[in-house]
Amino acid sequence: MVELKLFVEEVKEFVRADPLLIARPGETDLLWCFNEPSVLDKFVATSDSDHNEGYSTCSFDMSPAGRARFHGCLDVRVPKDGRIKKAGYCAVRSKRARKSFKRKTTYDWHLYNTLVLKVRGDGRSYLLNISCEGYYDITWNDIYHYVLYTRGGPYWQIAKIPFSKFILGSKGRIQDKQNRMRFDRVTHFGITCADKINGPFNLEIEYIGLEFDPTHDEEFAYEMYKTDKYIVGV
Q: Origin, by domain of life (predicted)?
C-alpha cells in the first residue's frame, strides 16, 4: 500500500510537469532536516567493528537538543589476525534513493554548486563523501571527498563547501586522474570519522542542504596534467 501511494505521487508529479528550473542565489534548499527521528531512518551508521575489522563503535541518533547526533568511540587498534593492516573508522551514510516499488534512482543536484551543513562539532576533522552512479563496476568504489573542519565548544557553525573542491578517490586512495562529479547522478552522501585519534567523537547535525552561489564560477579546483593512458587510466 505504501509503494502504491508513492507511485500515485510520482504520477501526479509527472502530470504537473513543474520541475525546478533555477536555484535562487543565496537560498539554501534542504536535503535532510534532522528535526524528527523519522529522518534518521534514511541513514545507516557503520564502523570497522561491524565487519570484524577493528574495535570502533558508533551510533546515529537524536541528541538532547533534538538534532541528529553522529557519535561513538574511535579505536585505531589493528586486530591481530594477519589480514587487517589499518583500522579505526566510523561512518554514517544515506540509503540509496528509491522510487516506488524499490526502483533505484539518483539525486539531481545540477542546479547547485555548494554543499551547506549546519553542525556542532567537537574539534575533530570529518570526511564528507559523495558517491555518484557509475556504469562500470570498476567505478562503483569511486567517491568524492572533502574535509569538514569543526570547532569545539557549544556553538553551531554553518559550513559551505563548493562542489569544485571535492576530490576523487577510490577505496580511500586519491586518484591520479581527477574529474568533476556527475551532479545529476548522485547516489549517496556520507560522513566519516577516521582521523587516527583514539577516543570519543560527537558531531551534531541540524541540516544538510544545497545552495547556488553566483559568485563561485570555479569548475574544478585541481589543476590537471595531460598524461599518457598507459601511465594514468582512462
A: Eukaryota
